[in-house]
Task: structure prediction
Amino acid sequence: NAGVTQTPKFQVLKTGQSMTLQCAQDMNHEYMSWYRQDPGMGLRLIHYSVGAGITDQGEVPNGYNVSRSTTEDFPLRLLSAAPSQTSVYFCASSGTGRAYEQFFGPGTRLTVL
Amino acid sequence: KNEVEQSPQNLTAQEGEFITINCSYSVGISALHWLQQHPGGGIVSLFMLSSGKKKHGRLIATINIQEKHSSLHITASHPRDSAVYICAVTTYGQNFVFGPGTRLSVLP
Result:
């Protein structure tokens, strides 16, 4: 199993550009989530999904959209990038059989100029 | 006040030392997690606890539900243990609430 994969690993955007961060898992997990990690702060939840077709907002959802059309994929869209969105983004997934242990992707380092 | 707090924020130890990292939380939880993040690396789950104590190799994690406190211990520390250790809790759902992390450096 590949586990949780994310692409790209690095990305530089200009203010106002849009892009999609890809996340996929091959563990048939129902729960998937996106976090951002900023220096000096803990990871913060952006959006999450408890299954295909179901998404909800986390702590810091503004400026981001998500969709969940399949169990495997959970892309994160930046609608109009801003320098405040410079961060490292992690995707994670979990099943329900092990009391919500989460598996994390390798992260995407995004810089918005 | 953050829902999950950790101490210390930074820790430097000599190889071989016994290390303790503390986590306290202020919300009701279904489980507590200890995660490890190496510099520039991804995040790996070390332990998931809802009570008592767990041991894996040189790592030991304990939790006291009544006191809302958990500790992560590393025995016979090694430079390869240098990483950020993150405490996180799951509340009565599946979302994680993360602590700010403890940056550990183990010197040879």
Observations:
- Chain A touches chain B through 26 residues (CB under 8 Å).
- Chain A has no helices and eleven strands.
